[in-house]
Design goal:
It comes from Sorangium cellulosum So0157-2. Its EC number is 6.3.4.18. The structure is a single chain. The chain is of the alpha+beta class. It folds into 3 domains: about 80 residues, Rossmann fold, CATH 3.40.50.20; about 70 residues, Dna Ligase, domain 1 (2-Layer Sandwich); about 200 residues, D-amino Acid Aminotransferase, Chain A, domain 1, CATH 3.30.470. It is built from 12 helices and 17 strands. The strands form 3 sheets. Strands 9, 10, 11, 12, 13, 14, 15, 16 and 17 form a 9-stranded antiparallel sheet that branches. Strands 3-2-1-4 form a 4-stranded parallel sheet, with helices on both faces. The radius of gyration is 21 Å and the shape is globular. The structure holds adenosine-5'-triphosphate and magnesium ion (MG). Magnesium ion binds next to β14.
C-alpha cells in the first residue's frame, strides 16, 4: 500500500544523507521526523521534529515510529533492536534483517561468499595471532577492517606485509600493533587487491517488488575516502552489465525495501568483486541529483513509501567532488563564489558547523556533455576552493 504524500517519514540518522533525503521528501509533500544523537545534526534545520537520542536507544526509535507512517535509515550503525522496536509501530524499510547482515563486515562478507557473490580473499579474525596467520595466508599486503563501526576509511588500516626487511618478525610486530590500534576487536582481513577502477551501483526496490537500477558510477578514492565520482561511469558494456546484474540479484535475494548500493572493485585482471553493501543513499550517487531524472534521495522516498519508482534516465552526465573540512583554513570558509562562477557547477553544503580534516562538509557537482567534461569543471571549481587553504588538487 502506498504511503501517500502528506504522510510522515521517519529517518534514523540525521547526517547529510538524512538531510538530503528529508529535503526530497519535503519536495514530495511529506512531513519528516528524524533521530540523531547530535542536536546540531545536518538534517535538523529541515525537519518537522528531531529526536535527540543515541543510535542504540530502542525506546526512542519506537517513539520516532509512533509518530511516523514509515521509517527508514541513513546510517548503518543503528541498533537492530531499535529497528525491531520501531517495526512494531510502523513499517521499517530496510528491515532489521537486512541491516543486521550489512552492518557487520564479517557477517556481510560471509553472507556474500556463501551465497555465491564474488568477493576477494578474506578472513574474519578475533586475535592478533589470527590476524598474523590470515596475513601470512594472503601473502602479506592486506586491509584490516573492524567488523563494526567503520566508515570513510576509519576503523581500517593497511598492512604492508613487513616488506622493509622481509623478516617474519616485522610482520608479527606490525600485525600486533595494528590489531591494538583497531581496538582489539573482531576484524576482517582482506587481501590488498590490484585495482583497475572502483564503481558502485544503486538499485531501488519497493515493498511491492518493483526494481529500478541506475547506471554504475565510477568512483575515485583518496586516502580511503571518496574524492570524486562520475555518473554514468565510463565503463565497458560488459562491466556495466555484470555490475547491474549483481546489484539486481542482491536486491531481489535480500528482498531489500528502499535503496541498496553495491560498491565494486574492478581488478586489473578484469574480475569484478564486491567490496561492500549499503542499504541507503550513498556518497557515490550524489551526482544523481543533477544527472538523473530522479535523484537517489527522491528514489529512496518513493521506494520506502511504495510509490511508483522514478525514471533512472541520465538527463545530463555529471560529476561530484567531495569537499572535506581541510578546505576550511583556521575556521575560515573557502571562497565559494569563485567556484560558483564556473558554468554548470553547483554547491551542496551539509550545514555542519564544525569543519575538521577528513570530515565531509559538502560537495561540488557539475554537469557536462560527457562525464569527463563534468569532472573537469567540478575539479576546477574545487581547485579554486582548495587554493585558499593550500591543499593538493583533487587526485587524477
Ligand atoms: N581489499 C582492498 N584492496 C584494495 N583497496 C581496498 C581494499 N579495501 C579497501 N580498499 C580501498 O579503501 C577504500 C575504502 O574501503 P571500504 O569501502 O571498505 O571502507 P569504508 O570505511 O566503508 O569506506 P566508505 O565509508 O567510504 O565506503 C575502498 O574504496 C578502496 O579504495
Ligand atoms: Mg566503502
Amino acid at each position: 500500500m502506498p504511503i501517500a504524500p502528506g504522510s510522515t517519514l521517519g529517518i534514523l540518522g540525521g547526517g547529510q544523507l538524512g538531510r538530503m533525503t528529508a529535503l526530497a521528501a519535503r519536495t514530495l509533500g511529506y512531513k519528516v521526523h528524524a533521530l540523531d544523537p547530535d542536536p546540531d545534526c545536518p538534517a535538523r534545520s529541515v525537519l518537522d521534529r528531531c529526536i535527540v537520542a543515541s543510535f542504540d536507544d530502542a525506546a526512542q526509535a519506537a517513539e520516532l515510529a509512533s509518530q511516523c507512517d514509515v521509517v527508514t535509515l541513513e546510517i548503518e550503525k543503528i541498533a537492530t533492536a531499535g529497528l525491531s522496536a520501531a517495526a512494531r509501530l510502523a513499517p521499517v524499510r530496510p528491515s532489521a534483517e537486512v541491516l543486521g547482515m550489512v552492518q557487520d563486515r564479517g557477517v556481510q562478507k560471509s553472507w556474500l561468499s556463501s551465497n555465491g557473490f564474488p568477493v576477494g580473499p578474506f578472513r574474519e579474525v578475533a586475535t592478533s595471532a589470527e590476524l598474523l596467520a590470515a596475513t601470512r595466508a594472503m601473502g602479506g599486503a592486506c586491509f584490516v577492517k573492524s567488523c563494526v563501526g567503520g566508515y570513510d576509511g576509519r576503523g581500517q588500516l593497511r598492512l604492508s606485509g613487513g616488506t622493509s626487511t622481509g623478516g617474519g618478525d616485522d610482520l608479527e610486530r606490525e600485525a600486533e600493533a595494528l590489531f591494538g590500534t583497531l581496538g582489539g576487536q573482531r576484524c576482517v582481513v582482506e587481501q590488498a587487491l590490484d585495482l583497475e577502477a572502483e564503481l558502485s551501483v544503486l538499485v531501488a526496490r519497493s515493498p511491492s517488488g518493483k526494481l529500478a537500477v541506475y547506471p554504475p558510477a565510477l568512483n575515485h578514492h583518496r586516502d580511503q575516502i571518496l574524492d570524486w565520482s562520475l555518473l554514468p561511469g565510463p565503463l565497458s558494456a560488459s562491466v556495466t552489465g555484470q555490475a547491474v546484474q549483481i546489484a539486481l540479484d542482491l536486491a531481489v535475494g535480500l528482498r531489500v525495501e528502499g535503496l541498496l548500493v553495491v560498491e565494486l572493485f574492478l581488478l586489473k585482471d578484469g574480475r569484478l568483486l564486491i567490496n561492500e553493501l549499503a542499504p541507503r543513499p550513498h556518497n557515490s550517487y550524489h551526482a544523481s541529483e543533477v544527472a538523473c531524472a530522479t535523484s537517489q534521495f527522491e528514489q529512496a522516498v518513493r521506494a520506502v513509501c511504495d510509490l511508483p519508482l522514478g525514471s533512472v534516465e541520465i538527463v545530463r552526465p555529471a560529476a561530484i567532488v567531495n569537499l572535506l573540512g581541510d578546505a576550511w583554513l583556521d575556521g575560515a570558509q573557502p571562497p565559494f563564489e569563485a567556484a560558483l562562477e564556473i558554468p554548470g557547477v553547483r554547491l551542496h553544503l551539509y550545514g555542519k558547523r564544525i569543519a575538521r580534516p577528513g570530515r565531509k562538509m559538502g560537495h561540488l557537482s557539475a554537469t557536462g556533455r560527457t562525464p569527463e567534461e563534468a569532472l573537469v569543471a567540478a575539479k576546477l571549481a574545487m581547485a579554486r576552493l582548495s587554493a585558499h587553504a593550500g591543499l593538493p588538487l583533487p587526485s587524477r
